[in-house]
Amino acid sequence: MEFSQASYKIISDLLAQRTGQQLTDSRKWRLESALSGVFRRHGIANIDQLVCLLGAASQPSQYNDLADEIVEALLNNETYFFRDKPTFDQIPLEVLPELKKRRQRERRLSIWCAGCSTGQEVHSLGMLFEEQKGLWAGWNIEILGTDISNKAIQVARKGLYTQFEIQRGLGVSAMLSYFDEAAGGWQMRENARRHSRFEEHNILTQSPGRGRFDLILCRNVLLYFGSEKRALAFQRLSNALANDGFLMLGAGETVSPHTDAFIPSGKRASIFELRSSIQGAEPTAQFA
């Protein structure tokens, strides 16, 4: 379906202003399908009519409500349990054992999943710690999931997923161990959610925790930022990471050329550490 370049610019500028994300030409094809629900709710047929409706808003609240609805529809909430498993498996095999040594005295571990979408990544970590609960007995484990999408965060907090969502990345044994069948899908049990918390947050703003995080997962989030915003995001991430902590990006993502604050963590794929560290560890991040 055709739409004017002026309408496209208004929508893309709105997304950039609200989230920092770029609506590149490579994502232009999905505009109509992403906004189809907005069209139905407002009885309109295309993007040009949507832009007219946005411009006709007589009150700031009407404009903001519609703008929020548009932005929510355009956000990419693609995720699934144990996503990119070869990359994810480095967490229990290499990252957590190293952090366990480094935090043996404090016995506290704080993890931030930035851009967590509907929560599957956070809940994957929750299941992982529940599987290893004997190794972490007496430890204070905190997993914070954040996303700019309020709708996605609400889903993450509920921990209720459809059969389709459950089957993506989750085996039958894990499903039966950590979920109960419920009206509308499968409800995650409290034993795998007890370490987790979710907040609405923009990665381009200040860190959502007090202190610094031992492990930050920011996977397939920065792909949607331009060079300037990506550099700012890396600055925020470096400020939020403990000096001896780890940053995990998505498979194939890298820090170069957007920042020199991080270096690859040995031969680990998609895992980075801060280039320089100050003697003495910062206090581990705690939830407000």
Give a description of the structure:
The protein is α/β, with parallel strands linked by helices. The protein has two domains: 5-74, Chemotaxis Receptor Methyltransferase Cher, domain 1; 85-274, Vaccinia Virus protein VP39 (Rossmann fold, 3-Layer(aba) Sandwich). 40% of the residues lie in helices and 18% in strands. The protein contains twelve helices and ten strands. The chain has helices at residues 5-19, 31-34, 36-42, 47-55, 60-74, 85-88, 90-102, 120-131, 150-158, 163-167, 172-178, 227-240, and strands at 108-114, 140-147, 160-161, 179-182, 185-188, 196-200, 213-218, 241-249, 262-264, 271-274. The strands form two sheets. The protein has a seven-stranded mixed β-sheet. Strands 3-5-4 form a three-stranded antiparallel β-sheet. α1 (5-19) crosses α5 (60-74). The longest helix has 15 residues, at 5-19. The chain is globular, with a radius of gyration of 20 Å. The model has no long low-confidence stretch (mean pLDDT 91). One of its GO terms (molecular function) is protein-glutamate O-methyltransferase activity. InterPro entries: Bact_Chemotaxis_MeTrfase (IPR050903), CheR_C (IPR022642), CheR_MeTrfase (IPR000780), CheR_N_sf (IPR036804), SAM-dependent_MTases_sf (IPR029063). It catalyses: L-glutamyl-[protein] + S-adenosyl-L-methionine = [protein]-L-glutamate 5-O-methyl ester + S-adenosyl-L-homocysteine. Residues 1-273 form the CheR-type methyltransferase domain. Its EC number is 2.1.1.80.
